[in-house]
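Quick log. Single chain, no ligands specified.
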Amino acid sequence: MRRSRGREVKILSLAAFFIIALLSMVELPQFADGGAEFYAFDVGQGDAALFRFPDGSNMLVDAGPRKSAESLVAKLRRAGVRRIDILVATHPHEDHIGGMELVLRSFPVGKVWDSGYNHGSGVQRSMLALVRDLGIRYGRPRPGFKEEHGGATVEVIAPIAPISGAESDANNNSIVLLVSYGEVSFLMMGDMEEAGRRAVENFPAAAILKAAHHGSRNGTDRRLLEQTRPLTAILTYGSGNSYGHPHGEVRELLGEFGVKSYATADGDITIRIEGDTYRVSQERAR
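-> predicted structure:
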């Protein structure tokens, strides 16, 4: 079935809202009508994305830099998060895992998925020590691994094998996830660059692409777009960043493929998914 663009969705009645507020201490599924939700948060120059699955479980993919940690925790709470079932560290750069210590201290966490790449940085050592001290399940899932969450599927696409000798090994060893619900799929690319993409023979089709490496020219190429054929791209970068993200080549390429792009520099992005449809909204940065 051809993936379609979003449509308006039914919202909870006012009465239902008050019932949920009164039962805020009870674990309830997020959506009575079977939908799911995705958030890409504005954490400045970094990545933090949340999936809320129909069974009420949550997966947080990266947690932004340390300086945005308090803001991220507040946003997660406003989104209704009381527990994080899967916390994914796509790779050990500070702009992706700097906020994880506060997240780990602020929410019960079911398990942590890690790329397994040893960067040796203080922020990585501190995060892993806290995971160990809290007794949280820890794993390094490999391609082909899948989990089901209330009708949504989370599948690991990469890293295929440890990559070394590239200009940025930590980026190229990023965990890449395909998250599917109904006819809508997300491809979460971490910060994977060219060397990592070459190791993947075929990327799956996906309606929504979380572009790699903050819209950098080394994160998205023609082959990737030809294989994935996204309708929507999410670019995660900070306003006025010193790296020049997003690069003009990527913007032009997305335009050539007719991909509608949204940037976290413009505010938090929410995507509501129901079956074969989804709707994108954005809370503009102030």
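The mean pLDDT is 88.
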